[in-house]
Design goal:
15 strands, 468 residues, disordered C terminus, 21% strand, six-stranded mixed beta sheet
Length: 468
């Protein structure tokens, strides 16, 4: 992106931000939103309130008050983001992604901060966490639909500490998977439809989470841990009212019951020992290309039955995938997709979690999402809401500029690379010759694409929306 393109974005940004004017009762806070978003989009090395305010020739206390005390509706702002995505960027093969991120912080005043595992630093650290919902389409559009702060149990139990930083009394501890379900529910209420959902094993290990998505009619392909349990062969179930074999007298069971020898098994044991897996060969799939070369996985899949209330569910899929270049790296996926769904489609969804990682990378390296220095719940909520607004503008701009000459600093899709130069090219590119040379085999390898053959049906081009 050259200087002329950057300068030309100002009118488009003003038109875009006008969609959020209804969130404000007065013109002053609406103007502060523009200052905040422009600060996030700027090249400031530190994008906390003070440098952004000074760059906008605004007193820092004014912009701090905009976050902490001004009368405006951040909930309505989030609704508007979701409605705009539903209206302008809906895609029949979009994938929703649940994930969480952490922010390293000093001290003990930031809402929800505590010593816990921190993905940002890769160790136990003092940090706060939030749960996010991203929306990705096969043509490269990625947006963050919603985000919510996680309140640890020890925080929720200390209401005096909560009140000190403005956490409302109605905000209590909720596991991250229940927060994720709430984000999904809000998105659906605002018109967003998810043909598919995916998530990592931190969510997939919770059977109640999987059952809740299934009850909503939501298709998913989610990673599960190796000790997740179920059956590859559906166990026999005695109907309610029947007696156990050999029992002639007495009332029958009040509920359906499993017959004997129907214990569940771990998925790693099933994939290693069950005939449903041992009788089939590994099939190689070219998942993606990165700056380090192609990523190829070997895959097997079979029908799978989860356990719910002690009984088997309807048939699901169990997929095992291992990295061709490092066979110790094994992933397990469970999906509630119907029978006959192409395996390529399931893998495309299961390996789509990079989209939310791209969201976090853009928000942290480009927009300063982790630069906040606020200490109140409302300020942090508003910071996350505004960052979603800014990221959506970035996604729309990237889409409009796609196809133009690449930026001279090595960016892709017509936008510059991140400040830290950490991005990989995540696009699924077919390079079978280089791929076979890299893995040292002549065996045919299937490439995973968001294509008609992969996802079943013609994929219409996504809308190219300009906020004029």
């Amino acid at each position: 992106m050259d200087a002329a393109q950057i300068a030309g974005l100002a009118p488009a940004l003003d038109r875009y931000l006008a969609h959020f004017d209804d969130c404000f009762g007065r013109s002053e806070p609406a103007a502060h939103l523009r200052s905040y978003v422009k600060g996030q989009l700027s090249d400031l090395p530190r994008k906390s309130v003070e440098p952004m305010a000074l760059a906008a020739d605004t007193p820092p206390r004014t912009l701090q008050q905009f976050l902490s005390g001004a009368n405006w509706d951040q909930g309505l702002m989030g609704q508007q983001v979701r409605r705009m995505v539903a209206r302008d960027h809906a895609h029949p093969h979009a994938v929703g992604v649940f994930d969480e991120t952490t922010f390293v912080k000093k001290g003990d005043k930031t809402p929800g901060v505590k010593r816990q595992y921190c993905g940002a630093s890769g160790k136990i650290d003092n940090c706060t966490a939030s749960v996010h919902l991203a929306y990705a389409t096969p043509d490269g559009f990625i947006a963050q639909l919603d985000a919510e702060l996680f309140v640890p149990q020890d925080w929720a139990a200390d209401r005096a500490r909560c009140r000190a930083c403005g956490i409302p009394d109605e905000v209590v501890y909720r596991p991250k998977w229940t927060i994720a379900l709430g984000l999904h529910e809000r998105a659906i209420a605002n018109g967003v439809r998810f043909p598919w959902m995916t998530f990592d094993e931190g969510y997939g290990l919770i059977p109640a989470f999987l059952h809740a998505l299934d009850d909503r009619g939501q298709r998913y392909v989610g990673e599960v841990p190796s000790n997740f349990v179920g059956w590859c062969k559906r166990p026999a179930v005695r109907p309610a009212g029947s007696r156990r074999p050999g029992v002639r007298k007495g009332p029958g069971s009040r509920t359906p019951q499993l017959t004997g020898d129907s214990a569940v098994s771990r998925v790693d044991d099933l994939c290693r020992c069950s005939a449903a897996f041992t009788a089939q060969p590994w099939v190689r799939f070219h998942v993606k290309d990165t700056t380090k070369g192609p990523v190829v996985w070997e895959v097997k899949a079979a029908r799978f039955y989860l356990q719910r209330d002690g009984l088997p569910t309807r048939a699901h899929w169990l997929i095992v995938a291992r990295n061709v270049l490092d066979r110790s790296e094994v992933k397990y996926f469970v999906s509630n997709a119907p029978g006959g769904t192409p395996l390529e489609a399931l893998l495309h969804v299961g390996f789509s979690r990079w989209a939310v990682e791209r969201c976090f990378e853009d928000q942290k390296t480009e927009l300063g999402m982790d630069h906040f220095e606020v200490r109140t719940w409302k300020s942090l909520e508003r910071h996350l809401a505004i960052t979603s607004v800014t990221l959506l503008f970035l996604a729309c701009t990237r889409r409009e500029l796609r196809g133009e000459k690449p930026a001279p600093d090595g960016g892709t899709d017509g936008v510059p690379a991140s400040h830290r130069g950490q991005r990989h090219d995540r696009r699924l590119v077919d390079e079978p010759t280089r791929q076979r040379a890299a893995i040292g085999t002549s065996r045919a390898t299937v490439a995973i694409y968001a294509t008609q053959e992969c996802l079943g049906g013609r994929m219409p081009p996504a809308k190219n929306v300009a906020y004029a």
